[in-house]
Amino acid sequence: MSALARRAPTPQRVNPAPIVAVASGKGGVGKTWFSTTLACTYGRQNRRTLLVDGDLGLANVDVQLGIRPKSDLAAVVNGWIDLEAAVTPVLGGPSKTGGFDLLPGHSGSGRLANVTMEDVAGIVAGLATLAFHYDRVILDLAAGVDAQTIRLAGAADKVVVVTTEEPTALTDAYAFIKVLRLHNPLLTPSIVVNMADKRLTGRKIYDQLAKACEAYLGVRPPLAGVIVRDTAVPECIRAQTPLPIRSPGAPALDDVIRIADQIAIDPA
Questions:
Q1: In what order do the strands lie in the sheet containing 136-141?
Q2: pLDDT at res. 105
Q3: H or E element: which one contains 240?
Q4: How many whole angstroms from its chain centre is CA 121?
Q5: Which domain holds residue 205?
Q6: Residue 264: what pLDDT?
Q7: Domain for residue 268, yes or no?
Q8: b or e along 169-184 (b: 16 or more beta carbons within 10 Å of the residue's beta carbon)?
């Protein structure tokens, strides 16, 4: 990972942007969709945003966005380029309203699945440097609780766990929170309930998870928000277009906007 230290970008902020990691216990809960929508939402608020595909085994953010990046984290890990050189602008980049930057993984190859913890530490160090260029850094993690994912989550300033009403999603979300708390007892994730039939239903789902955490882990994670089930979401995923661009009036987008405000950490 020596390439990460080759060129340190000139800081543009006094303090780095906060890193918000988006996690889930299992796949299929809409974690990556939420991450991309969150990045676009902050971009529409004229917040310079970097979205990082931290799924080191099955990266797919670029697929959801319908882009073909020229480089990715695999090239960084192999020492071919610096982390900064792998950044790809989306929708015109942060200089355009709604645009943001993407640090892509390596789609579909699994080439990053067996990276060492030293490599992960290098990625974390590189992100800490890049964060001086942004107002928001969103880290889309892999589903599950493997060591690399927990290490990346532990380096974040805030962690958001996405779940649904499915019993397996709730069980795995609890498992993620438990393992993360063992790694960093000071880090308490916030909860996003996705694909809820109603907001009241979503709050009841959250209560189930929060009560389990309170009973067995001694901590009650806060609710970041509920996202209602919305037919516009699968349509935008199939179209490989962010929800704020394809369906700016979608109810699910209103929910994401509220969550974006709820979890925002403004750097000094």
A1: 88-90, 100-103, 49-54, 136-141, 19-23, 158-163, 190-196, 223-228
A2: 83
A3: none
A4: 18
A5: 2-263
A6: 83
A7: no
A8: bbebbbebbbbbbeee
